[in-house]
Design a protein that fits this description.
By secondary structure, the chain is an alpha/beta fold. The chain has three domains: 184 residues, Rossmann fold; 103 residues, no CATH class; 37 residues, no CATH class. 34% of the residues lie in helices and 14% in strands. Strands 4-7-10-3-11 form a five-stranded parallel β-sheet. The chain has a four-stranded mixed β-sheet with strand order 1-2-6-5. A two-stranded antiparallel ribbon has the order 8-9. A hairpin with a 4-residue loop joins strand 8 and strand 9. Helix 9 crosses helix 10. It is elongated, with a radius of gyration of 32 Å.
C-alpha cells in the first residue's frame, strides 16, 4: 500500500523501509559507539551524525542496521554513487499512470518524516553539490529544501542518520564543512579468527566446518599481510566452492581444488599464495591422478635424484629399484645423462 504525506500542499509518496535479517557478530563496542552517538541526554541535546569507516565488505552497513534494530526503528538505506544529484537525495518528480506529476520522497526524506534511521551508504562517492543539499540537515537546523517540489522538509525529532564510507581510491574528498558535521568517526577493523568463523557460519549454515575453517585460515593470513580481502570475500569463496562441489558431485577430498578455483576467480591469481599447506599427503587429498603442484601451487612434489654410478651394471640396478614406470626419473636411452662408459673405455681412467 502506498503511503503519502502532505507538506505545504505538496503530497509526497514515501519509500519503503528495508526488510533485513542481518545481525552484527563480533566486537559489540562498535554498536555501543554508534548508539552513543545517537543518544539524547537532554531535551536541549542533539544527536550526532556518525560516519563509519572501513574497507569494502567489512560490515559497515550491517553495523548500522544492527544498531537500528536494537533501537527498534525502521531502517532506510540510500546508496550513494558518483552521479547522485541533490534531487535524487531528496524528492523526485514522477509521471503517474494518469499523466500527472507525483513527487516521490527518497529513503532519506522518508526516514526524516517518519522518525526512522537512514544509512547513507558509501557517502564519500557523492560530489560536493549533493553534500551541500544536506548541510542544514546535519546541523542544528535539521531540515532539507527541495527545489523540485518547492518545499522545506523538517526532520522528525527521532530521526537519526549515519554515513558509511569506504577507504578506497574511487571516492571523492569530503568537503570540510560536511566533514565537521559527520562526527564521530567509527573505524571498523578486520575481525579476529573466532568472530570471522562465527560470521561465516551465520551466513553459510549449510557449509561444513572443514570448508569454513579452511576459508577463515586463508582470510587470517591475508589480514596479516594487510591485504584488503574481507569477510564478504570469504563468504563468496565458501559459497561458490560449495556450489562447485555440489554441481560436480565431488566430496571433501576435492575441497582444496575447489577452494583454489574459487579464490582465483573471485580475488585473482595473487590471492592463492595465502592458501594454507595441506595437512596430509597429496594423494589422500587430491587422488592418485593429480599433483598438488597443478591444483594448489603451494607444495611442490619432491623429486628423487638418482646417485651417479660408474658402471652400466650400477645404472641397471638403480633403474630396477625405481621401476620402469616411475614418473619422476627414468634411466632409459632418452635420459639426458646418457650411457655411462666402462672404465676400460675411458682412457683417462686407465691405470698407467
Amino acid at each position: 500500500m502506498v503511503e503519502t504525506v502532505t507538506i505545504e500542499d505538496v503530497q509526497l509518496v514515501l519509500s519503503h523501509p528495508e526488510n533485513f535479517t542481518m545481525e552484527w557478530i563480533g566486537n559489540q563496542y562498535y554498536v555501543k559507539q554508534l548508539l552513543a552517538a545517537w543518544l539524547m541526554v537532554d531535551k536541549q541535546d542533539q544527536p550526532l551524525n556518525p560516519r563509519v569507516l572501513g574497507p569494502p565488505g567489512i560490515g559497515k552497513t550491517t553495523l548500522a542496521c544492527a544498531a537500528a534494530k536494537q533501537m527498534g526503528r525502521p531502517v532506510y538505506i540510500y546508496q550513494a554513487t558518483a552521479d547522485t544529484r541533490p534531487e535524487d537525495l531528496l524528492v523526485q518528480p514522477v509521471i503517474s499512470a494518469r499523466n500527472e506529476i507525483t513527487y516521490h520522497a527518497s529513503p532519506l526524506v522518508t526516514a526524516m518524516l517518519k522518525g526512522s534511521i537512514c544509512v547513507l551508504d558509501e557517502g564519500n562517492r557523492m560530489s560536493e553539490k549533493s553534500w551541500a543539499s544536506l548541510a542544514p540537515l546535519l546541523d542544528h537546523r535539521r531540515y532539507v529544501e527541495s527545489i523540485i517540489a518547492g518545499i522545506k522538509i523538517p526532520a522528525h525529532p527521532d530521526f537519526r542518520i549515519c554515513c558509511t564510507m569506504n577507504n578506497d581510491a574511487s571516492t571523492y574528498e569530503i568537503p570540510e564543512y560536511i566533514h565537521s558535521r559527520l562526527q564521530p568517526q567509527i573505524t571498523i577493523e578486520f575481525p579476529d579468527r573466532e568472530d570471522e568463523l562465527k560470521i561465516l557460519k551465520f551466513n553459510l549454515p549449510f557449509c561444513g566446518d572443514d570448508l569454513l575453517n579452511y576459508v577463515v585460515d586463508f582470510l587470517q593470513r591475508a589480514h596479516a599481510k594487510d591485504e584488503p580481502f574481507s569477510v564478504r570475500d570469504g563468504i563468496n569463496i565458501a559459497r561458490y566452492c560449495s556450489k562447485l562441489m555440489v554441481s560436480e558431485v565431488k566430496d571433501l577430498a576435492d575441497m582444496p581444488d575447489f577452494v583454489q578455483r574459487a579464490v582465483q576467480q573471485i580475488l585473482g591469481e595473487k590471492a592463492i599464495q595465502y592458501l594454507s599447506n595441506l595437512p596430509v599427503s597429496t594423494k589422500e587429498i587430491l587422488g592418485p591422478d593429480r599433483s598438488l603442484n597443478e591444483i594448489l601451487n603451494v607444495i611442490k612434489k619432491p623429486t628423487k635424484s638418482p646417485p651417479r654410478k660408474n658402471s652400466k651394471e650400477d645404472w641397471r640396478l638403480v633403474s630396477e629399484d625405481l621401476g620402469e614406470g616411475d614418473d619422476e626419473w627414468d634411466a632409459g636411452e632418452d635420459d639426458e645423462l646418457g650411457d655411462v662408459p666402462d672404465d676400460d673405455d675411458n682412457p683417462d681412467r686407465r691405470e698407467t
